[in-house]
Every structure is written in C-alpha cells, then in structure tokens.
Amino acid sequence: MKLLFGNKKDDLLSRLKRQEPAAQKIFYDQNVKKFLSISRSYITDLYQAEDCVIKAFCKIFKNIESFRNDGSFDGWARRVVVNECLNFIKSHKTVFYLDDINPAYLEEAYEEDLVFNFNAQELLDQLPDAYRMVFNLYVFEDYSHQEIADALQISTAVSKTQLFRAKEKMRKIYFQQQKALQNENY
C-alpha cells in the first residue's frame, strides 16, 4: 500500500493512530527485525525475546495515543520494547546485584595481540542478567546511571558497579575466545 502525500513517517503515524491494520502491518514489517535485535540484547532465549517483541507491538498499537510528539516516534517505540524486556526479566527471573568491586581478577591485555573476531550477541548472551541489563541500558539506550537506578530500583553505585563488571566480564570472555582461536591456529 502506497502512502500518497506528505511526509511518509507522519502519514504512517497518523494512520497508526487511527488503528488502521494496513499501517500496523507496514510498521511491523519495518521494525520487527530491529525490535527483535533490541530484545535479544536483553533476553538470551530467542522465543522469550520474540514474545517480548510481540507484546511490545501490541502495547505500541494499543497506547499509540499516549505518544505526544515530544521526541521521535522511533525512540518512543524503542523505549516500549526495552521496557517490555525489563518487565519480562523482572517478572521471570531473580536478578542479584552485587555492590563491591574486586578488580583483583583483571588480566593484562596487550593491543598488539588483539584480533577483532567476535560475535557481540554471543558476548552479551554470556553475561549474567544484571550485568546485561545495565550494560544495554547504559551503552545502547544511553541511559544515565540515575535513570538506570530508577528503572531497575537500584542505587547509582550498583549501576556503576554492574556496568564495570559487565565490561570486565565481556573483556575476559573475549580474551578467552581469542586465546582459544590462537591455540586452534597453532
């Protein structure tokens, strides 16, 4: 179905607000892969991530009138997907946050030994839920530590600690993978 006049995004948005099924299908087709990618960055199980995406689309279509044109519609829809993932994690899993940082386990790394061969989703999947949530909100969603603390009902110090630990865990996993690759090549 062609959009005939005006700004295509604005026209699609107005059609979505009128609850037109054809517009909903267009919006779904344009965004399902992106939203699934976002969901997978929070939830390791593909089927659960897909469920969150479907629920997010339902919420977007049901609550589209609450979008007030204060920011971009894409940003608003993305936030609905992220919130749906966070709600899923909160309701289905127990997430523990540890407050203290123990950097004693850190290993030395030398850049000349690095070979950048990795799958980011595999690294994210190996993080504990608490680390992954904070990392995603901070890095991908550009939340401040205060916003993360408010969203997850934790302190800003815990948010900072979890981000630090997520980065270190990812670094450690990455270097272990690189070592394994080097051992395979020799």
In short:
This protein is an all-alpha fold. It contains 8 helices and no strands. The radius of gyration is 20 Å and the shape is globular.
Q: What count of helical segments does DSSP give?
A: 8
**Number of separate strands:** 0
H-E string: HHHHHHHH
Major beta-sheet overview? none
- The secondary structure category is mainly alpha
Mean pLDDT: 81
Question: What would the principal axes of the Cα set say about the shape?
Answer: globular
Q: Gyration radius, to the nearest Å? A: 20 Å
Kindly estimate the percentage of residues that lie in beta strands according to DSSP. under 5%
Q: Which regions have little confidence, pLDDT < 50, spanning 5+ residues?
A: 1-6, 98-115
Helical amount among residues, as a percent range? 55-70%
N-C termini distance? 56 Å
Describe what you observe in this structure:
The chain is mainly α and 186 residues long. The chain is 67% helix and 0% strand. It has eight helices and no strands. The protein has helices at residues 8-17, 21-42, 46-62, 73-92, 120-125, 129-139, 145-152, 156-185. α1 packs across α2, α2 (21-42) crosses α4 and α6 packs across α8 (156-185). The longest helix has 30 residues, at 156-185.
Give the topology, please.
Elements: H1 8-17, H2 21-42, H3 46-62, H4 73-92, H5 120-125, H6 129-139, H7 145-152, H8 156-185
Helix pairs in contact: 1-2, 2-3, 2-4, 3-4, 6-8, 7-8
